[in-house]
């Protein structure tokens, strides 16, 4: 796990921003790890909100509070906004309903989308329960399907099933996160973490690439 992710978790725990945290490590398959955590959430807790967090994402406590508020307002599955490099271009990890659309073109901070990554996505208990009742083990939530000739990763496969059970997927553009690969990938206006070194390599077509 990145130290920045650990810092985010410790800071959020000190603020009481979440009730419980669990790590799943050791499986060579990402879908198995995510499904293990969803299964634990349903079988061993009575919480009403589940957050999928990747070990290379950093955030602040307010990000958790914002997604939780979104679910309280009626959303079923909502992600924060983080970036990755696709074919040399820094882009948000999201598939829009309209492929021509970008976050900068949206007047509403909450956008309904087709699919999001699972690096920082919050979902209601009801959605996970509907999936468990609809799809078979061992992968009732996250899986890697081929849809219309396209191989989807386990995160996009999850979103595909969210739509199949009649729910919707959203992204909240107010929740701007940092994504760490060999460098730190951020959207615009994301401040550096305390005591974090490095310099800016951006802007790069919609965000900043900041050395981590």
Explain how this protein is built.
The chain has one domain (about 5-180): Alpha-Beta Complex (Spore Coat Polysaccharide Biosynthesis Protein SpsA, Chain A), CATH 3.90.550. About 30% of the residues lie in helices and about 25% in strands. It is built from five helices and 15 strands. It is globular and about 45 Å long.
Tag the structure with descriptive keywords:
212 residues, Spore Coat Polysaccharide Biosynthesis Protein SpsA, Chain A, four-stranded antiparallel β-sheet, 28% helix
* Radius of gyration over C-alpha positions, nearest whole angstrom: 17 Å
Order of helices and strands: HHEEHEEEEEEEHEEHEEEE
Rounded mean pLDDT is 88
Indicate the proportion of strand residues.
25-35%
Structural class given helices, strands, pairing?
A: alpha+beta
User: Helicity, in percent?
Assistant: 25-40%
Widest beta sheet: strand line-up: 1-9-3-12-7
CATH architecture: Alpha-Beta Complex
- Could you please say which CATH topology applies here? Spore Coat Polysaccharide Biosynthesis Protein SpsA, Chain A
The main sheet comes to: 5 strands, mixed
User: Can you tell me the CATH class?
Assistant: Alpha Beta
Question: How many domains comprise the coordinates?
Answer: 1
Shape: globular
- How many β-strand stretches? 15
The termini sit apart by 14 Å
Q: Which regions contain 5 or more consecutive residues with pLDDT less than 50?
A: 197-212
The helix tally amounts to: 5
